[in-house]
């Protein structure tokens, strides 16, 4: 199965390396946690706007955004991080920056626009060691966040919270606390969300969330179009999560209801989108989110009756169910919004686990073939459009799919018959046809008990 064609010096090691990469890709896809990146737009009260901030841990939030993750404006971020491994956070809105006059000719302005800036206070006092110097301390909601000791106003250094503006001869004066005021939040516009989608095209993620309410119908329609374009025109098999949007498409998860959290916070369906996106992104090829518990939730909002739940599932809606026995909330069934089936898309396509397998095979194959091309280019050669190239691709794909089968993601795969590679009509490329059978999750258990 492995190509025995001739290679230039240094090229021989590419094929074993590629096989290893395909095996690694397969192994990563079936390991929990190796997926897990979510793109999340957020209407926040602090932070840089119109750029993606990589958040891997709660500590990253305070380090990169200057606020603890417990801040109320980060509610959806907290819910996403319950399941996601990485969040690409995108602040949609800006706002007016809070300002203050610290002393004559000394102006202080918050680094970012937004209401959080109103929680900034600056205190100036004599340094206890050297009375010729001043201690300048920035507080955020009474917590000290930045301290400087300076001899004059000209030595003040901008930091992640405030920017100073002084003139020659500005003199610092002691103050028990000068508060910044005037900061406010702008309400995100459709244009802000549109820019989010445009910027997202240049990022890598598994799932993207659109947490907008039912007034955002035009946005939801644009979102569905974005997902379809990425999946079908660019071949990037991402998933989108939105609420109350009957997209009838395997790339869109349509959230039906919300939840109530332990602290009493009520999440509407469009807010619950954040958790669903994290759950979808983090699930491996081997995991369905059916029956997965929503940690921290104590009720579904609203609760659905049995017939309502069945109708919702038939309509391609992602439902949260309250279990009175353990006072917890679970995913009823891990499905997407697809409800129209044909010979190209059977009812199996409505299962998100099935789509994770199919999308994973697509994304892994695309990424690794591109890497193989790059490796050849770096070695000053190409993948030849001849039998050697056919054998190379055949070996890569069968090795990768064999690994998926060994790990239980697919079944009944025959490496000698289920992958075919041929040259295209113009003999400058390849046609790869492969057959796989994704393994679904056990979701229905029928138990008969004979009483004797």
Automatic annotation (TrEMBL):
Residues 190-337 form the Tail sheath protein subtilisin-like domain. InterPro entries: Beta_sandwich_Seath (IPR035326), Gp18_domIII_N (IPR054564), Phage_sheath_subtilisin (IPR035089), Tail_sheath_C (IPR020287). It comes from the Bacteria. It holds the Pfam family Phage_sheath_1. Residues 35-92 form the Tail sheath protein Gp18-like domain. Residues 93-185 form the Phage tail sheath protein-like beta-sandwich domain. Belongs to the myoviridae tail sheath protein family. This is Phage tail sheath protein. It comes from Listeria booriae.
């Amino acid at each position: 199965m492995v190509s025995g064609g001739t290679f230039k010096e240094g090229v021989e090691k590419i094929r074993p390396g590629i096989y290893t990469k395909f095996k690694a890709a397969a192994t990563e896809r079936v390991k929990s946690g190796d997926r897990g990146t979510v793109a999340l737009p957020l209407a926040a009260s602090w932070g840089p706007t119109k750029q993606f901030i990589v958040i891997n841990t709660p500590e990253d939030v305070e380090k990169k955004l200057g606020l603890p993750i417990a801040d109320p404006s980060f509610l959806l971020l907290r819910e996403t991080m319950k399941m996601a491994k990485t969040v690409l956070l995108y602040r949609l809105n800006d706002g007016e920056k809070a300002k203050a006059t610290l002393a004559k000719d000394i102006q202080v302005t918050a680094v970012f626009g937004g209401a959080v800036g109103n929680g900034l206070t600056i205190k100036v006092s004599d340094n206890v060691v050297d009375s010729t110097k001043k201690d300048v301390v920035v507080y955020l909601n009474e917590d000290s966040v930045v301290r400087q000791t300076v001899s004059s106003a000209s030595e003040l250094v901008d930091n992640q919270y405030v920017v100073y503006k002084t003139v020659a001869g500005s003199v610092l004066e002691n103050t028990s606390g000068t508060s910044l005021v005037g900061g406010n939040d702008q309400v995100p516009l459709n244009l802000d969300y549109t820019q989010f989608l445009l910027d997202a095209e240049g990022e890598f993620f598994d799932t993207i969330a659109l947490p907008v309410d039912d007034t955002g119908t035009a946005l939801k329609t644009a979102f569905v179009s974005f997902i379809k374009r990425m999946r079908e025109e660019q071949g990037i098999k991402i998933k989108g999560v939105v609420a109350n949007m009957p997209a009838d498409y395997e790339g869109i998860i349509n959230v039906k209801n919300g939840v109530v959290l332990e602290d009493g916070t009520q999440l509407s369906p469009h807010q619950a989108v954040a958790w669903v996106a994290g759950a979808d992104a983090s699930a491996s090829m081997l995991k369905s989110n059916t029956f997965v518990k929503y940690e921290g939730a104590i009720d579904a909002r609203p609760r659905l009756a049995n017939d309502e739940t069945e109708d919702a599932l038939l309509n391609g809606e992602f439902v949260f169910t309250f279990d009175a026995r353990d006072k917890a909330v679970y995913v009823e069934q891990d499905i997407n919004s697809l409800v129209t089936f044909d010979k190209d898309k059977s009812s199996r396509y409505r299962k998100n686990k099935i789509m994770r397998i199919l999308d994973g095979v697509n994304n892994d194959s695309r990424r690794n073939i591109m890497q193989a091309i790059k490796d050849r280019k770096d070695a000053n050669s190409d993948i030849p459009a001849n039998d050697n190239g056919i054998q190379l691709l055949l070996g890569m794909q069968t090795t990768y799919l064999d690994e998926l089968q060994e790990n239980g993601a697919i079944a009944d795969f025959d490496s000698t018959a289920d992958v075919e590679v041929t040259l295209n009509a113009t003999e400058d490329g390849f046609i790869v046809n492969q057959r796989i059978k994704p393994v679904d999750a056990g979701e229905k258990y029928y138990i008969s008990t004979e009483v004797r």
